[in-house]
Amino acid sequence: MTNIAQLRAKAENTEQQIGGCVRDIVAQLVLPGDQRSDPELRSDLARLIALRKTLKQIDRDFDRQKGDVDRAYPNRAAAAGVRRFFRELHQRVWVNRNIVQMIRTLIAAGPRPLYPDPTPAHGMLAQQTEVTDAVFIALQQYLQPETQAPEAAAHGCFPDISLLPSRFAEHAHAAYRVMLARQGDRPIRFLDVGCGCGVKVLSASILFDQADGLEFDAGYAAVARDFLARSDAGNCNVIQGDALAFDGYADYDVIYFFRPMMTDEGLIALEDRILNHARPGTVLIAPYGMFHDRAADLDCAHVAGAVYLAGCDADEARAQREKAEYMGQNIVPPEHRRRAAKGVYAPVRDLCRATGFPVS
């Protein structure tokens, strides 16, 4: 064999070994922290670093010998194939240059609360958030109709009331991490009960595979449909209907509601309807005190903040919270989260996407 042929064979063998090493590392990383073998992980990572060093050297060696390709391979097609192989090898070495740091991040990951610590009211981040929230609310008020439909008011529906977008983002992000911790293969479906003009639906579409809004008021529903269509959000839908009679709650994994009914009686009826139809384990986002006070009576368990689990007890909720706290904080859009990576490092990239850690 020529030196170039030997280099190619060595590169193929090295990448094959890297693939096995990566699979061994990921097999450890998917285990709970107390079940991992730290010595084995350290050994596998050291082996991966050594193999990657070998592959980089092969890449450099070919760069020095690439002028010999035509002499070693007189057939033009064969020479072109060799150049293509080493060009793609160089790209793989470059694209995956941060893979070891990604693995170290996964190894070192510890629990992080589902909600951030409160920022000082007059601190820089709080002030910036206040400005963003104010603009967001103004835009939402611009979108919505000037008056609520008389039929909606007679039915006991609140006009579109706005939870601050920064608060909604905190609740939705916490729910997102709870869902990541379940590591299921099915798409995650979100429902906003009383979605108004659809702004929260659009926000949720960035986190979840499908984001739907349920709205009684025909005027609000029409605005929401137009807004979401203009936003080019392909995973959103608006359902015009009565939340007190809706029979599709079991179709959703995450359900959000923020006092959509004006009276306590109407709100109790709505909560009962949701809980009687939602599947056990459904994640509920209910950021108001009355629901917190009734949660236990509704067979709901508190996870954290405004996040609850339907049909679960406190022990189940605590277990899910603890598992969710080990998820990363990176938001991976649904279309990327379910797109399988390719190549020998695919298991690491897929694990990062599935558990909320950045892919670099």
Number of helices: 15
Rounded radius of gyration (Å): 26 Å
Note the run of SSEs as H and E.
HHHHHHHHEHEHEEHEHEEHHH
- Low-confidence parts, pLDDT < 50 over ≥5 residues? none
CATH architecture of the largest domain: 3-Layer(aba) Sandwich
The percent of residues in helical segments reads 40-55%
**Structural class, please?**
alpha/beta
Overall 3D geometry?
elongated
CATH topology of the largest domain: Rossmann fold
Taken as a percent bin, the fraction of beta residues is 5-15%
Q: Output the strand order for the largest sheet.
A: 3-2-1-4-5-7-6
CATH hierarchy class name of the largest domain: Alpha Beta
Largest sheet: 7 strands, mixed
The end-to-end distance, rounded to whole angstroms, is 37 Å
Give the overall pLDDT as a whole number.
Answer: 91
Q: What is the compact description of this entry?
A:
The protein has 360 residues and is of the alpha/beta class.
Provide a descriptive summary of the structure in words.
- With 360 residues, the protein is an alpha/beta fold.
- The chain is built from 15 helices and seven strands.
- The protein has helices at residues 3-29, 38-65, 69-72, 76-95, 99-108, 124-143, 150-154, 165-182, 199-205, 218-230, 264-277, 289-294, 314-324, 334-337, 346-355, and strands at 189-193, 210-215, 236-240, 254-257, 283-285, 300-304, 307-310.
- Strands 3-2-1-4-5-7-6 form a seven-stranded mixed sheet, with helices on one face.
- Helix 1 (3-29) packs antiparallel against helix 2 (38-65), helix 2 (38-65) packs across helix 4 and helix 8 packs across helix 13 (314-324).
- It is elongated and about 85 Å long.
- The two termini are 37 Å apart.
